[in-house]
């Protein structure tokens, strides 16, 4: 148990360092800019179908920090939660973001619920990645993985309030 707690603690510290205040900058007009906002803007250019889903009231955004907090609150790893952690492994530009939606799509025969997930992130090479997930009986299943050419995002770019 202590080995798992230590691994989680180390993971949490690494994530905290990666998502430090350095991911923020001020634009020329003194608006606070967040690199993740710039990344989401570029990703939705590659996948415009995500825009209404991400703005939906049925959409909830999760980060790796949120999943770790859920693990602490639950006190145990559920198979569904455990299946999401590996998706956050690996390098990316900015933070990997998981959006979970309920009731958006009709039910395929394999699934007994209407929960759909989208893990979106910008790969180190600047490409945009979208992984579509469905909540299965014991885990989240990867339905598809798409990669589109995107652009590298830098904090020096001017950002605008949305």
Task: List the keywords.
162 residues, alpha+beta, 5-stranded antiparallel sheet, 5 helices, 27% strand, globular, disordered N terminus
What do these coordinates show?
The protein is of the alpha+beta class and 162 residues long. The longest helix has 17 residues. The termini are far apart. Strands 3-4-5-6-7 form a 5-stranded antiparallel sheet. Strands 1-2 form a two-stranded antiparallel ribbon. The N terminus is likely disordered. The protein has 5 helices and 7 strands.
**Which oligomeric state applies?**
single chain
User: Main beta sheet: strand number and arrangement?
Assistant: 5 strands, antiparallel
Q: Beta-strand percentage?
A: 25-35%
Distance between the termini: 44 Å
Radius of gyration: 17 Å
**Structure class:** alpha+beta
What value does the average pLDDT take?
75
N-to-C series of helices and strands: HEEHHEHHEEEE
Number of helical segments? Answer: 5
Number of strands: 7
The outline comes out as: globular
Low-confidence stretches: 1-31
With strands numbered from the N-terminus, the spatial order across the biggest sheet is 3-4-5-6-7
What percent of residues adopt helix (DSSP H or I)? 25-40%
């Amino acid at each position: 148990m202590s080995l798992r707690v230590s691994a989680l603690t180390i993971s949490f510290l690494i994530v905290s360092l990666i998502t430090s205040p350095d991911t923020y900058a001020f634009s020329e007009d003194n608006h606070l800019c967040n690199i993740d906002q710039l990344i989401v803007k570029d990703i939705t250019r590659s996948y415009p179908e995500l825009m209404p889903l991400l703005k939906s009231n049925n959409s909830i955004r999760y980060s790796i920090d949120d999943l770790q907090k859920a693990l602490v609150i639950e006190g145990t790893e559920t198979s569904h939660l455990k299946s999401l952690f590996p998706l956050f492994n690996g390098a990316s530009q900015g933070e990997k973001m998981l959006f979970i939606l309920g009731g958006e799509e009709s039910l395929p025969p394999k699934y007994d619920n209407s929960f759909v997930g989208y893990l979106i992130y910008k790969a180190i090479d600047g490409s945009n990645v979208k992984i579509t997930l469905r909540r299965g009986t014991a885990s989240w299943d990867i339905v598809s993985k798409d990669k589109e050419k995107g652009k590298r995002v830098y904090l020096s770019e001017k950002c605008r309030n949305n």
